[in-house]
Amino acid sequence: MDWPRGLDGLCYGGDYNPEQWPEEVWDDDVLLMREAGVNLVTVGVFSWARLEPREGEYDFAWLDTVLGKLHAGGIAVNLATPTASPPPWFTLAHPDALNVRPDGVRQVHGSRDTYDVTAPAYREASRRIAAALAERYAGHPALAMWHVHNEYGSTSFSEHAERAFRTWLEAKYETLDALNTAWWGSFWSQHYGEWDQVLAPRATQYLANPAHELDFKRFTSDAMLDHYKEQRDLLREANPEVPVTTNLVFGQWVPVDPWKWAAEVDLVAFDSYPSAPDERAEQQSAFHADLSRSWAGGGDWLLMEQAAAAVHSKDGAVAKTPGRMARHSMIHISRGSKGAMFFQWRAGRGGAEQWHSALVPHAGKNTRMFREVVEFGNTLPGIAHTTAEPVEADVAILWSPESWWATAAAHLPAPVDYLENAAQIHRVLRERGVVADFASPEGDLSKYATVIAPTTYVLSRAAAENLRWFTAGGGRLVASYLTGAVDEHCQVWLDGYLGGLTDLFGVRVTEHLPQPAGERRALWNFGAAERFCELVELRGAQCVTQYATGDLIEGQPAVTVNPFGEGEAWYVSCKLGDDAWDRLFEELELTGPGGPGLDVVDRGEWRFIVNHTEQEAQVGHVIVPAGSWAVDKRPR
Ligand code: GLA
Known about the structure:
- By secondary structure, the protein is α/β, with parallel strands linked by helices.
- It folds into three domains: 11-247, TIM Barrel (Alpha-Beta Barrel); 395-587, Rossmann fold; 600-633, no CATH class.
- 31% of the residues lie in helices and 20% in strands.
- The strands form six sheets. The chain has a nine-stranded parallel beta sheet.
- α5 runs parallel beside α8 (210-238), α6 packs across α8 (210-238) and α14 crosses α17.
- It is globular, with a radius of gyration of 25 Å.
- It starts with 10 loop residues before the first strand and ends with a strand.
- It binds alpha-D-galactopyranose.
- Alpha-D-galactopyranose binds next to loops.
């Protein structure tokens, strides 16, 4: 029970918000959906004010009509609980249920995501609306899946959050002594004498305690997960046949540990919005897809949202040229998504996202965009059978949400862009044609030949043991600078950093040497390092390359390798440029059938090829036109 009920092909559709439109548009919607091959739509994500116009008073008539029309049209429904946007009556009645920013300002309604998952009134109202939907629709023939909430991520620093945080801390540490020790409370007189003295990490005068901040992010992930589970359980109880999910999203603002969450959803679902204005958007899409598949344990997952056309980035809206929507969709499908879903079906006339692209643009069906939507949608049934086998990867990149969170701290040995460091390794591998998985530092690594740890700054004792076990058993471990700098409490690993694994790597790191911005430090025959280097003392490892220049580091080891048990551990003591990673992967013989601008993914007897370049591409016997894609038999 992990798949939208009643659907056995690939899903195609998106967020459908009929409540924004008069009823006469709804019949047209169903007709157009059928024309486009849409088979699943997500309904009701932001409908709370329409479903419960006053506390305890429900209006389901419109939703009954919508679900009836969709069902009659053969379109299945992914029915959402609307808790990501509480109605104005709720927030006015319960101002304490609005989220509080780190600076103490309580937000007001007028946008969305204004809720505090730890506020009792919000929890109760969430249960009530979810239960009312379950009671009415759990047996509805159109219902294929439940979509709880939307993109969990809003953090609150309220008093409710603070109280819940203390309860969470008490469960974790049991005694204040343990908490004070874990948080290094003697520094700056932060020793707590009573649980009630512990606050949420709101804005402080100067630097905050990194262990406190990291625990608050862990707590927030767990608190949001509790909110999800509460709804999931009552939806499941109403009909155990219907899978339940929520759409995960990506961002520094999202304190969600996807490894933990993936275990609680029936189907991992992800919203992919690449932010790059150029061809890096393809890279970001592949990165999102490989992460999602990995959170799903290598199995099926679903691209729940993407933009049909123009994508909003910081620099404005970037158009998707002809064929790009299909290619992005195929990046996801080839990498394990069981379909392609979008935000949203019909472009809104008003509201904050009125200029967001949609499957049906403002100009209607007679548009280039809608023709592409129809063409692609009608192609999918023909390739569904090629997606049965899993994606094959024997390289994994460690994905450590805690390292991402912890490296957001203001005071580090050097500024660290964890996301970019992980993405860089993925990017260079992808350009070499290698499809990589991601793995949790504490997860099962046994199926991989090579595991790469990008700046895995937080390395718990359990993760360190996991890496030791992996390498001893024959694995090849590659770790980059600052890996294992601190433990799970953000306390430094003494005597050489590296998560205490100095014997495994055969080196000790003795000093951090940030380099001036913009200056590159050449490595012998190995490209160059950027921004950050470490002074490394050999303790049994061999030096693969040395720094060619730089105070203190000239002639010192930059990249090392150490045999350990049946395997070997490589250490990269600096931030490498793409060219140097490429050189290292050459050394490690990591190559695959794809290449720059060309995604090639093998699954069982099938090979997926997506050609993002402006030239025709030939892969084996298959010729793929410029800007196009193909699925063909894989050469054996
Ligand atoms: C998110 C949300 C959608 C919409 C899109 C816009 O993914 O879930 O409601 O706001 O972003 O890109």
